[in-house]
Amino acid sequence: MPDVIRPGNGHTDVPDVTAPESSRAGVPDVIHLDGVSRVFLTEPPVHALSMISLRVGQGDYMAIVGPSGSGKSTLLNTLGLLDRPTSGSYLLDGIETTTLRDGARTRLRGRKIGFVYQSFHLLPHRTVAENVMLAEVYGRSGRSGRRRAEDGPAGVRAGAAFGRRGRRRRAEEALEKVGMTHRVGFLPGRLSGGERQRVAIARALMGGPSLLLCDEPTGNLDSRNTEAVLDLFDGLRDQGLTLLVITHEDAVSSRAGRRVRISDGVLTEE
Ligand SMILES: Nc1ncnc2c1ncn2[C@@H]1O[C@H](COP(=O)(O)OP(=O)(O)OP(=O)(O)O)[C@@H](O)[C@H]1O
């Protein structure tokens, strides 16, 4: 839990790293960090993130590199609303997240963010389709759960699509995006590593997130499957998805349009 939350806390003199193309054109940033720090109050305290300012626009594809222990996961957890900064401001699609209560953060995460990890985290006794569908049952409760006042009339209409059939259809659409519709009934154990990661990406795409956060997504893949996943990322970026990818592989970071380095919690753009 954070000790102090001071959104917009006077750190406006912190230079922004760079403004993304899209924000210059008047489109809101997907990510806008302003003076974000994260201190773990251990003995001694760890300054995992120090005064990070960063703007990422829609359709940006950014690699995050840096040595072990430099703060990459802490940054990804912060961006993914899994952790709160100790201080600073984080606007996600224009929404100040640091002052939101836990429930609102969970719903926002469910609506806007997909996660992809090195180990695919697929349930072994569930089919490909079921694994993808379960994203809405567990990870996206804000979307599939009880309708909220702010959903408005569209939410009433959408409510009809929240049953199992709607989920199944959306899962098949997500699997189509990753080229895996021919394996919907397979159990994960019968898939190659590359195919498993594509299913995990389909699961992350459920709910139509605006941001995909990936932690070493090709870490368990050979070079051929790495290329396939990177091609997929290119396609998703072309469709307007924003991608942030932690990686230590040059083959991955060289494909991203932007590259930032974290060193002892300090971020610089390369
Ligand atoms: N819950 C925690 N409590 C205390 N310190 C932590 C905690 N989580 C991370 N840290 C520390 O914060 C720093 C940054 O950790 P982080 O996991 O973000 O690094 P990383 O760059 O992702 O490392 P790696 O590449 O090895 O995964 C490290 O010094 C780590 O020991």
Automatic annotation (TrEMBL):
Keyword S-adenosyl-L-methionine (UniProt): no
PROSITE patterns assigned: ABC_TRANSPORTER_1, ABC_TRANSPORTER_2
UniProt-recorded Gene Ontology molecular function terms: ATP binding; ATP hydrolysis activity; transmembrane transporter activity
Cleaved signal peptide residues: none
Ranges of residues in domain ABC transporter: 31-270
Gene3D superfamilies: P-loop containing nucleotide triphosphate hydrolases
Domain of life: Bacteria
A Pfam family that the UniProt record links to this protein: ABC_tran
Gene Ontology CC terms, in alphabetical order: plasma membrane
Keywords: ATP-binding, Nucleotide-binding, Transport
Protein's UniProt name: Putative ABC transport system ATP-binding protein
